[in-house]
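I hope you will forgive my troubling you with a question about protein structure. The matter concerns a single protein, recorded as an amino acid sequence and a row of backbone structure tokens. Please examine both parts with care and let me know of anything in them that strikes you as inconsistent. Thank you for your consideration; the sequence and its tokens are set out here:
***
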Amino acid sequence: MMTENSFTGLSPRHQFVDTHILRIDGRSPDPLLIKHAKMAQSPFTFYRGSAQLFYADWKAGNVQVDAALLSLPLTCVVGDCHMSNFGFMTEEGSHGDIIIFSPNDFDDACVGHAGWDIVRFLVSLELAREHCEGVRSGKYESAKQATNKTVIDSEHVELAMDAFLDGYLTVCERVADDPTALYDAVEDIMPGTRLHKFYNKACARAAGGEEFLTKSALAKAVQMRDDGLAFRKNSDKFTPLAPHYYTAVKHAFAPYMDDDVIDIVQRNHAGTGSNNLDRFYFLVGPAKPHNEATFSRCHIVEVKQQREAAPLFYYSDLSPVNRLNPAHLTARCQRKMKRRPDLLLDEAEWSDKHWLIRSRHHARVGINPEDICMGNRSIDGGFVDFAQVCGEALAFAHCRGDRRSVEFELAALSVLETNRDALRRISLEYAEQVKSDHADWVAYFRGQRSATC
């Protein structure tokens, strides 16, 4: 295993990459670390697991953006903005039944530059194309095993970049004309479109939906026993807590729950960027539900360790708000950026760590590159349409950072339209850098894996 001073023989770029990954993960490429195994799969998964590297490059001047992009008023940003951090969910967490399309991961949210999110998303479009082309050819691994499907090409990526910006600017214009549009959301998905299948899936899994009892997040995680409900025995996902630890965890977090705590487990290996952070799942609700109506009153609450948002190590002085502890900042930004945030959304300090407390959505349906970059329907407009909807959803989130004026919207309309070509160019150039970083990083990773065999 490398240490901070063991960069001998590495190129300056490899040293740069390794330094910033080491800072977050506590180790260099390590085949025994599940997060690193995920990152090794493709440039897209590497990008997902190394958000800090994007901001290190931005700070170092390796992402050459026009100064006008940084002149936009600061707002709440997603921080780790890429195409797989958008999807369908029920508003108000597991307490609501309205399905919307929205950003779905706020772990790196903070007050910052909207351009961070915009460029980071545009980069992800090209990396998603590369991922799926590699899956089709057998270069990259995928759980989908969709190797026989056609894949979008570079022209589709450029069209999608334009569509994303179109969607973003359309919402900014709507809000500038009518500030009450801030209380709209992306919830109308046209039948026959590529995303409609995923929208229907989310609707079916919401409380009262036809698949709620079988395929909702609650149903897939929980089993009915003679003595009531409990988390399923699934060693890949859940680890039971030792009795004394169970008691301590319950005592620390039960005051934040909105009903009885039925069961608690440790959640294993969730996420990519946050894969190595501790998290617990609480099953909350009536102790012994006996029908669909009472089962729908149960829900899962995630208690997750939070660390500093990815941009803030490099941009610590942008806003006093960013001095809030990491969990408090995440909760605050999520409340601002969502139309109807989760009803159970809080933060706590325990065991010398900061923890975010939030209800899990029954009907959360994410979008993977294989879902939207492969197949005839993706090629025939589905991928481009998806990018436009993401632009709309992100613009709503950014615009809600200031609900007292339309200063942000007017500035965005002026700046983004005149910088379209530069944004596409910058994003495609940085995507190539990510591909090169991934190749170098994986070569070292594989060397480490061979050394351990």
